[in-house]
Amino acid sequence: MPDAPAAPAAPAALPLFNLAHRHAPDEVAEPGTAAEVAAAVRRAAGAGRQVHPVGTGHGWTHPIEGGLALLTRGLAGVRVDAARGSARIGAGTTWAEVAEAAAPHGLTPLSGSAPGVGAIGFLLGGGLSPLGRTYGWASDYVRSAEVVTGTGEVVSASASSHPDLFWALLGGKHVPGVVTAVEVDLLPLTRVYGGGLFFAATDAEAVLTAWAAWSAQVPDLVNTSVALLQLPDLPFVPEPLRGRFVVHVRIAVPLDATAEPGLAAGLVEPMRTVAEPVVDTLAELPAAAIGAVHADPDQPMPVLEAGALLRAFDADAARAMLAAAGPQTGAPLAVVEVRRLGGRLAQAPAVPDAVAGRDAAYGLFVVSAPVPELFAGPVPAAVGALAQAMAPWASGTFQPNFIGALNKPDAWDTAWPGGVAARLDEVRAAYDPAGVIGH
Q1: What are the Cα distances from residue 209, in Å, to 216, 271, 316?
Q2: Sign of CA dihedral 377, 378, 383, 388
Q3: Contact status, residue 182 vs residue 270, Cβ threshold 8 Å
Q4: Are 403 and 364 in contact, with CB atoms under 8 Å apart?
């Protein structure tokens, strides 16, 4: 029986969160099953076109030019197996949907900082969660994956079936197929002590240098990052923060029998006493509300991004960051974040994987102001100045989920060690010899 093509959709329907890029695929399809994905891949390959899998588009860094844009939202869905403590997650599903399905069972996924991010793309890059220092990389919890390879074959990949492909799916990011579903282990967690402390620009140096010292010695139970934020004067921003430059200290401590709210609050107290917060949102939260920690925007917008991994972040690094991107610079950057890594993130996985960043101490991530008129000159100049300022602390390596359009193209070449990168190339050649799957 001939392959039935998936129903095409209008190009305007591309559900991409980042609006910075203009996409021009030759065709758009929205399959509803793995079999339809396989048919679409074979049809594209036969026509000499590439296939570009599209989820929520939070991490999209370049325009789609030609080929088939394959929307995965028709595959979305969550099925929780409470007895096994796991969930089957369809491509196109957001972490908010997974958390909502898991919560009634006293379970939660190891999700990203923004609930609206798609689960699959996040996992393929390793998956750095706001709870990562305590629990590790999200890809550590993947049991198996359903994949349509670049040859149009539907396979189930796990540690015992297609183990080479499974290895690449755990952190390899640009994989030789379309992942249509995954099965992941969930955490028996219902509560988190988390939120943030927002400090005025006048306290930036005191807060940032104090955070550098504090974050270096906190136990693995404490997950934290600090961000310089230039907030817009818009109604969705809390009134005390509108139109202000602030320093946002982000905290997430999982609560269980070994960590009650009082202990968590005590661990955070050193940062509360550095200066008087403008806003303090720290509180006991349902685990499903983990998005409140970073409080990332949930509406699509045009931004350019860049990321890097750091060997260390001390008081000198804090001052260098402020000199390049502090309130006095007027840099057109909405977010400059440093996230503490280490802890469980640094531990070797039970199942070998391709995750990059296990040996980094901190991660740096930059998001531009959402002003396209500044994308050609001022934004790249500001990011370049920041990169130069942070060079003494940079490891020269990158975490794939945090590589953005403002990173140099060779960031992908140094994201993985040479041996890992070579093996990823071998897996891609085996499962997608014609290079049908684009990225």
Answers
A1: 11, 11, 8
A2: positive
A3: no
A4: no
**Helix (H/G/I), strand (E/B), else coil: 391:** helix
Q: Determine the Cα–Cα distance for residues 326 and 317; give it in Å rounded to an integer.
A: 13
Length of the chain equals 439
Q: How many CB atoms lie within 10 A of CB 188?
A: 11
Note the pTM of the prediction, 2 decimals. Answer: 0.94
**Amino acid (one-letter) located at 80:** V
Q: What angle do CA 294, 364, 324 make, to 5 degrees?
A: 105
355-114-309 Cα angle (round to 5): 40
E strand or H helix that includes residue 266: helix 261-272
The CA-CA-CA angle for residues 127, 130, 135, to 5°, reads: 70
Separation CA 169–CA 189 (nearest Å): 26
Contacts of 158 (CB under 8 A, 6+ apart): 143, 144, 145, 166
> What are residue 364's DSSP bridge partners?
308, 338
**CA-closest candidate to residue 342, choices 185, 221, 202, 233:** 221
Instruction: List pLDDT tens digits, range 258-268.
Output: 667 788 889 99
Pairing label, strands 283-286, 191-200: antiparallel
**137, 355 Cβ separation under 8 angstroms:** yes
DSSP 223-291: EEEEEEEE--SSTTS-GGGTT-EEEEEEEEEEEBTTB-HHHHHHHHHHHHTSS--SEE--EEEEGGGTH
On whether the CB atoms of residues 152 and 41 are closer than 8 A, the answer is yes
> Could you tell me which of 318, 348, 356 has the C-alpha nearest to residue 215?
318
Cα–Cα distance list, 253 to 51, 107, 262, 269, 413 (Å): 40, 16, 11, 13, 34
Instruction: Identify whether the C-beta of residue 236 lies closer than 8 Å to the C-beta of residue 168.
Output: no
- How confident is the model over 113-150, as pLDDT tens digits? 999 999 999 999 999 999 999 999 999 999 999 999 99
Bridge-partner residues for 302, per DSSP? none
Alpha helix (H) residue ranges in 104-226: 119-124, 132-135, 163-169, 204-215
Q: How far is residue 176's CA from residue 159's CA, in Å, rounded to a whole number?
A: 17
Q: Is there a contact between 74 and 30 (Cβ–Cβ < 8 Å)?
A: yes
